[in-house]
Amino acid sequence: MMRNKDEVIEKVSNTVIEAALTFKEEQKRTYRKAIDKEKLSRAKLIMENTLKNEEEARRSQITLCDDTGIPHLLLEIGKKDVLTGEMMDWIHEGVAEGLRKLPGRPMAVKGNDIERLEQSQGMSDDPGALVSAPLIVKRVDTPGVRLHILLQGGGPEIRSRTYRIFHKHKVSAIVDEIVRWAKEEVAQLGCTPCVPSIGIGRTHFEATSMMIEAMVHGKFDVQSDIEKEITSRINESNVGPLGLKGDTTALATFLKVGPQRASGVRIVCLRLSCNIEPRVNSVYL
Amino acid sequence: MISVQTPISEQTIDSLKVGDPIFINGYIYTGRDAALPKVVKLIEDDKIEQSDIHLRGSAIFHTAISAAGIGPTSSNKYDIESNIPILSEHGVKIHLGKGELSKETVEALKKNNSVYAVVAPVTALLQSTVIEKELVAFPEDGIEAFHRIKVKNFPAIVSIAHGRTIHDEE
Q: What is the pTM of this model?
């Protein structure tokens, strides 16, 4: 199928904008359920304001959060479909256009390796100068080329880790460690309730890639037993919305398990996604 | 809701307690990882008085300023939290941000009669509270430059005050 450059750029641009401005319906339903269950009135109010913020973002086209995030792209390609280098260029142009139209926060750090590390040359004024994270491409059974765009905020990245777990041939050992990590970090996140996003693989790259897939495909209202257990155990911490106590410290958990190594070790990537994440949107190109 | 007017008096801080929802009216400085160490450097070099930064009775919101709006960044990042004690010592009365702070910072806030209040990450809602914004220092830091914003009914919740944290709240 021949694709039109302008059409691809426009579709991608619109996908970025919607990801930065809106919640999914299932996300809003999950918030409403949490508000109903929450006993602390302050915690209820904070979560109600999170929903009001989404309404206002949708109405006014002002972003959900000023940290409009680093774009992460996952491309799924059907059996007969073709991805060209040119199309990848158009996708990146579409992301840049979306960030300019929003506008996203201009936060591309300028300079050579050392200058970027030290942030000594400041930042570009162009929101579209922000480079996306390396593209992940997957072959899927569904026909078509489907692009998923995730906008990843900075706060959750500080509270994330990818590390090994000696699993002792028990899932419970892995879950215990994930919950321990999450409880160590969640009070410092601030933007709670969090959405623990987890990938488990054979290498650090694979675990992180699984975490990205978990964020793309995870469903707030379709939770596995392990996901429910992790959410429930993190909620026992009573950290609550905004770290100001309450029953809702985690809203849901997204977990993706990849292939595993013949070993007593599992590599686990845990990202404590924040209260407005995942900012994800998808489009067929 | 408790209305707090800037510049903030010692008596106002005395009256605040953990869990209090506040509305700030007046002027707030904004600064984060890049700007706050530079403000502290001005203090250490005895140059703050000659600058356009007036810390006595002030509030500093840990946020970037850009066309994407404002919203709290993590206050427990090194470049921010490590500078809270000296900024408090030099008159900053309310530090605004997000995330839990260390016991050492809780003590430093108590010693200087300053408080820490968390701001919800609701950029779209916060937009209407900002009446004007002005670049004050360090333009080279772009979105992280030091700004002064005029706010009306800017919402926050006190989470550290007088040596107590939200965990000590009954």
A: 0.95
